[in-house]
Design brief:
The protein is α+β, with helices and mostly antiparallel strands. The protein has 11 helices and 15 strands. Helix 1 packs antiparallel against helix 10, helix 5 crosses helix 10 and helix 8 runs antiparallel to helix 10. A 5-stranded antiparallel β-sheet has the order 8-7-9-13-10. A 4-stranded antiparallel β-sheet has the order 1-2-6-3, with helices on one face. Strands 4-5 form a two-stranded antiparallel ribbon. Strand 7 and strand 8 form a beta hairpin. The chain has one domain: Chorismate synthase, AroC fold (4-Layer Sandwich). It is globular and about 70 Å long. The model has no long low-confidence stretch (mean pLDDT 96). Bound molecules: ligand EPS. The site of ligand EPS has 15 residues, from helix 5.
């Protein structure tokens, strides 16, 4: 069973990710992990913290001579801003953050004890664990990319449907957006929010290619791949919605326009299902979207209450981002990579990646024989 866990506070000493259950023999390229960490830090609209940090993964265990050895993999990412212990207590919770709900739950009186862990800084550790899962998935021919489809109400007018197109069309876009015109309008929306002391949210899309059919299962709610992916995306800080394939749009169309006809040689006439039917991957690309609310820390803060005095007060303000949608896309790639790696290991087993791949190949051979489809 593959699992992972993270530890660390936003302004504490460091972040830690532990990935347990990864098979042996996976080639680990720290540069690849660091490239994802860099991407997570990027994107127009990020705040001052990203100018301070330069996130790098240090692998502490589970990798020997550049390959996994089957034991738990601990990864460390140091914080440059480790000012936690010297920070002022926060008594006015920020609407939209975990501050108030967390204080009520944990019986504490300083919002900092909640916000330090609730912060999206934690996603750096998730990205590192997810990058390791991507390296495993590479062996199986699975490739993942993300791009920004909407920010502050400005949406792209064209959507790439392949990982290759995403990589080609995103080019040097600071928003990782394939539509240049829309990208410029998104930047204007972020600038406008900054001038008003406000923030903006948006939507990112993740596309996965090379997914073998048969991951997940229709037989039990918690084995359904769509459910597992939706949970993973929804668990990313500030995400308020997840769509798979055509998503909510499919409710506005008749069945004849929604379902993807099956072609005689295999493949589909369309991919509105987003690569999953009945909670099982069907061999098409997985396509899903996450909706991110605007960051909750506002320079022009909303009304709140000072929990020490019980009196009305404006919410606490601290350094934050205006928009982090492109970064959320990178985090979502990691979240998806983890779920897919876990499902591949569930289905094909093995303790060494060669064993997993042998099982995968023999299964695909069998599917080809039984269906005549190219899988
Ligand atoms: C983040 C680090 C944080 C924030 C942001 C994401 O750093 P700091 O609080 O020191 O500025 O920039 O966190 C949030 C948006 C949030 O809501 O907590 C990071 O590394 O991604």
């Amino acid at each position: 069973m593959l699992r992972y866990m993270t530890a660390g506070e936003s302004h504490g000493k460091e972040l830690i990710a532990i990935l347990d259950g990864m098979v042996a023999g996976v080639a680990v390229d720290v540069k690849f992990i660091n490239a994802d960490l860099r991407l997570r830090q990027a994107g127009y609209g990020r705040g001052g913290r990203m100018k301070i940090e330069s996130d790098r993964a240090e692998i502490l265990s589970g990798v020997y001579r550049g390959r996994t050895i089957g034991s738990p993999i601990a990864i460390r990412i140091g914080n440059k801003d480790k000012t936690y212990s010297g920070m002022e207590p926060v008594h006015v919770p920020r609407p939209g953050h975990a501050d108030l709900a967390g204080l009520m739950k944990y019986g504490l009186d300083d919002c900092r004890f909640i916000l330090e862990r609730a912060s999206a800084r934690e996603t750096a550790a998730r990205v590192a664990a997810g990058a390791l899962c991507k390296l495993f998935l590479k062996h199986a021919g699975v490739d993942i990319a993300s791009h920004t489809v909407e920010i502050g109400g400005v949406a792209v007018e064209r959507v790439p449907r392949s990982v290759k197109d995403i990589r080609r069309l995103c080019g040097r876009s600071s928003l990782r957006c394939v539509d240049r015109g829309a990208g410029r309008r998104m930047i204007a929306a972020i600038d406008g929010a900054r001038e008003r002391g406000d923030t903006v949210g948006g939507v990112f899309e993740v596309v996965v290619t090379g997914v073998p059919p048969g991951l997940g299962s229709h037989t039990q709610w918690d084995r359904r791949l769509d459910g597992r992916l939706a949970r993973a995306i929804m668990s990313i800080q500030a995400v308020k919605g997840v769509e798979i394939g055509l998503g909510f749009e499919s409710t506005r169309l008749p069945g004849s326009k929604v379902h993807d006809a099956i072609l005689p040689a295999g493949g589909r006439s369309s991919n509105n299902a987003g690569g999953m039917e009945g909670g099982i991957s069907n061999g098409e690309d997985i396509v899903l979207r996450g909706a991110m609310k605007p960051i909750s820390t506002l320079i022009e803060p909303l009304a709140s209450v000072n929990l020490n005095t019980g009196k009305a007060a404006v919410a606490h303000v601290e350094r934050s981002d205006i928009c982090a949608v492109p970064a959320a896309g990178v985090v979502a790639e990691a979240a998806v990579a983890f779920v897919l790696a876990a499902c591949v290991i569930d289905k094909f087993g093995g303790d060494h990646v060669d064993e997993t791949l042998r099982n995968l190949k023999s299964y695909l051979r069998d599917v080809r024989k039984r269906t005549g489809f190219k899988v």
